[in-house]
Amino acid sequence: MTPELTKLKDKIVQKEYLLGIIGLGYVGLPLSLTFLRKDISVLGFDLDAKKIDMLHAGVSYIKHIPSNELTNFVQQQKFSATDDFSRLDEPDVLLICVPTPLTRNREPDMQYIENTAHAIAKVLRPGQMVILESTTYPGTTVELLLPILENSGLAAGKDFALAYSPEREDPGNPKFSTAEIPKVVGGINAASTTLAADFYKTGLHSVVDVSSTQTAEMSKLLENIFRSVNIALVNELKILCHRMGIDVWEVIRASSTKPFGFMPFYPGPGLGGHCIPIDPFYLTSKAREFDFPTKFIELAGEVNTAMPYYVVQRIMEALNNRKKSINGSRILLLGMAYKKDVDDTRESPSYKLIELLQEKGAEVLYNDPHISALQPIRKYSFSLKSTDLTEETLASMDCILLATNHSAYDYQFILNHADLIVDTRNAFNGLEGAAAKVVQA
């Protein structure tokens, strides 16, 4: 290990380093709080000036991040945030937690990683460590990030350390905090792996080091592709079960009684979140460079992408059975978040459902106890605010569409006052009166 990296190791071991986190969203902000709780000072970077102002005021814009803790760390001058990227030379360790979306053609959009790398390269100094956490294709760290950083004139693995460690977050899951989730780490050389592992051990309970950045990058994709493929399988079985007159949810419950060799996955209106709908396409894109068709992965993507269309078809059939047309119908969508009990709408299938329903001529309203108004996102810009769930509102709708099964919903109350419910989450199963009003989708 070079003298520069030895000095960095000493700072890490003694917990006397400054941590810089680039991207203060659903990954970066929880990471900040995790290390702050271990008495590590954090300097956050983000392009959104509104976020910076809120953080300086000690206000959290993410539901499961407590504002009172942020306030304490800001007042103690342990935490600060800035949109001035010329200050990237100040931290000893830099974590890159920026988005990695897809283009309209479902190709990896690497602009945020590239722009961040160029910003770091302008001020990179000997003795720093850069760790990429954004989910991406195998090879990104050494093929894209490393050359840009070495434009600084410094050598990776000698003058500065470089590693990859995939983020692992499950928003809204009280069983696993950021600190409790094992952290996979792979560096570009042994020194970088050791330093990155030592760093994460100062804030997290468990670190799993692997032989390379490519292995660490692939491990993240495997985790999410595993979920994508299994969700696609159960979504396809759901459609078959509907045609055969079989309750797929009862089938899953029965199969789940097997104590070995089975893991339950559940159908829904489509995939949401920042990982599962996107990550498989990062691997399929990279695989094409090796003349390798990832048929299994791509088929799962097709099945999951088609689910909102299937849900709309079920709504049309349900309305038709009541001698109504979807054109002109009033439909109330319940749940804009991509999963229950969170305020995260990234890649939520609810956006696609609204688009498809509006294209069919329906008047669409929504309710979500965690999302008061819809903010414009990359693909959609709906000017809608959450509608109150009153008896009058429910009774005035031609159809209630349950997309996300939040715990806050009183399902019996909804059932009592609605005329028709299309349920994509099996939330109304077993309730009194459900048989006459509820259609599974």
Shape: elongated
Strand content: 5-15%
Helix content, binned percent: 25-40%
For this structure, what is the CATH homologous superfamily of the largest domain?
Answer: NAD(P)-binding Rossmann-like Domain
The fold-level CATH name of the largest domain is: Rossmann fold
Just name the CATH architecture of the largest domain: 3-Layer(aba) Sandwich
Q: What is the arithmetic mean of pLDDT?
A: 94
Q: How far is it from the N-terminal to the C-terminal residue, by CA?
A: 58 Å
Uncertain residue segments: none
**What is the total domain count?**
2
Instruction: Please compute the radius of gyration using only Cα atoms.
Output: 24 Å
Major sheet, described briefly?
8 strands, mixed
Task: Count every helix, treating DSSP H or I runs of 4 or more residues as helices.
Answer: 15
Determine and state the CATH class of the largest domain: Alpha Beta
Overview of the structural elements:
The chain has 441 residues and is an alpha/beta fold. It folds into two domains: 3-211, Rossmann fold; 227-440, Rossmann fold, CATH 3.40.50. Helices cover 40% and strands 12% of the residues. The strands form two sheets. It has an eight-stranded mixed β-sheet with strand order 3-2-1-4-5-6-7-8, sandwiched between helices. Strands 10-9-11-12-13 form a five-stranded parallel β-sheet. Helix 2 (28-36) links the parallel strand 1 (18-22) and strand 2 (41-45). Helix 8 (213-244) crosses helix 10 (279-287) and helix 8 runs parallel beside helix 11 (295-321). The longest helix has 32 residues, at 213-244. The N and C termini lie far apart (58 Å).
